Amino acid sequence: MRRKFLATACAAALTLSAYAQKSHPIIVNADKLTAKVQPTMWGVFFEDINLGADGGLYAELIKNRSFEFTTPLMGWAVKGKKIAEGDVLVLNRQEAAENNPRYLQVKVKDAETPADATITNEGFRGMGIKKGLKYDFSVMYRQASKGLKLHLELQDENGKSVGSGILTPNESGIGWNKQSASLMANTDIKKGKFQIWFEGSGSIDLDMISLFPANTWKKRPGGLRADMVQMLADMKPGFVRFPGGCIVEGRDLANRYQWKKTIGPIEERELIMNRWNTEFKHKPAPDYFQTFGLGFFEYFQMCEDIGAEALPILNCGMACQFNTAELVPLDQLGPYVQDALDLVEFANGPVTSTWGKKRADMGHPEPFNLKMMGIGNENWGPQYLERLAIFTKAMKDKYPNIKLINSSGTDPDGARFDQLNNAHRKNKADFIDEHYYRSPEWFFSNATRYDSYDKNSSKVFAGEYAAHNKNEPNGPNINNWRAALSEAAFLTGVERNADVVNMASYAPLFAHTDGWQWSPDMIWVDNTSIYGTPTYFVQKQYSLNKGTNVVDIKKGNKVIAGKDSLYASAVIDQNKNELIIKMVNASNKAQTQTVQVKSAKKLASTAILTSIANDLKAVNSFDDATKVSPTDERIDVKGKNVAVALKPYSVNILHIALK
Known about the structure:
- The protein is an alpha/beta fold.
- It is built from 11 helices and 32 strands.
- It has 3 domains: 22-36 and 550-657, Golgi alpha-mannosidase II (Immunoglobulin-like, Sandwich), CATH 2.60.40.1180; 44-59 and 218-545, TIM Barrel; 76-213, Jelly Rolls, CATH 2.60.120.260.
- Strands 3, 4, 5, 6, 7, 8, 9, 10, 11 and 12 form a 10-stranded antiparallel β-sheet that branches.
- The termini are far apart.
- It catalyses: Hydrolysis of terminal non-reducing alpha-L-arabinofuranoside residues in alpha-L-arabinosides.
């Protein structure tokens, strides 16, 4: 029996020895630079979906602040024992202020307590209120004579005051005035509200009733929600694509995004319905509008703040082809083309130019240095190609250095894609925008997608992608580790082909847990909190470790793209003298890989291994925001070799300093 056991053990040892001899090491030739990594390689895509702008990134807390929603008092409640029929009215100035025609007229007599006359705003799925934080209130008003005092209150869900202030309108006459006041919150509230109660007697017209937390990004009055911008800044994205997405097209052309209506004084920006208002029958959002407080100036400013290139996308004379497919006739396309030309002047023109002056008047005389622009979003067909040709000629004639992004439609393959892809390459397009919302299996199996692309042809912008888990519940829990792992595997192929793909961005970016229509999404928020999904941490690792040059990495003289469930790519950061190797172990078993580095330079004696690993269904949440997130460990480097232990279902980034 013992002899039989020894024979079996010896046979097993020989088998393992033979396997070890056949197992090839990972060979990284750090001196063989195969492609330059563009500074724009990893960026972010923003669209006002899922309450991404109003109710999200744009920090305004008052919903329907200028009474321009389809239902003028949506979001407001009017109460009081001294309010009679006709005492609170929404009036319409029509042509006198066509971008912001409505205002509220309030008449009160002998009001003394909150029970007498109040208007209350519910916010965007409630208002997030933080203890010890100041809140800045402002209002535009008009009154024939003085007589009313406005008591301002932050309230909890039950109407209890958690912060108060007083505003006494100090101007009277026929003109409109603006006045401000501040309140301090004394309690944390997730879903609060804001109330104004009127004291005294008189009549007053109110418009642009506004409330912002004082801790906006860079403390800018009327600015952006700081924690959301910080999440982007922490990624150090190479670009920000904005403002979408399907909202660029609109359900019809009247509903399209028009950048010129999003700049200038806030009260003069024309509100429109957000096209996601009616898009999903199972997720109705009748209160979803665009105030454009977050407009093109603010987008450019945010890009500048976080060191990212601006990538605006403009309507090409086509509404969403899934909705109405409405088209502008070719002979009427001129104003759309002029919008594109004027945008370059707005971003880059001198203060003496028409649109450069408008930028300067908003507080930014220096140019934003716009370098690229998208023409159309997910548009397709010959109707797109003929409109694109008109845009391209006009733009290249006047601004030949502006790079143009061309749509390849909604899918990464099929007849539509082939028609557009072939036409764009024939026309020597600067960039072709590819989108893929597919299963994790698709991402795993397409890690070699760009290996066969022509490196000397048009460049690719992977403008929208996300792994969509089938048979998983929609909402935050669809953003699990399995999806992020498959995206990480796919991105090794994107990075390996950085001379083909110059830019990439996951989509969508933000989602509000109480106001989302689409999932998965990279970052989830509620009224006071925020967390990054496993996908966020994968995207962040790629962005922070993009390096400057791709270097050759192979196993058994082949690219590492799925064999033995292993995926890998490598870059050099010439600025840091660092080799960065990304390895994805997509199997349920740990595996140790020997990495051999060929380099004329010496390697440091130790390396840092950053890894993310977890169960495939693991998710992050508000209660456990870093459950799936990176951890670092230091491992030994022996000469030019390093043994790397890869955990099951893991993304690994190996940092080796070069001396």
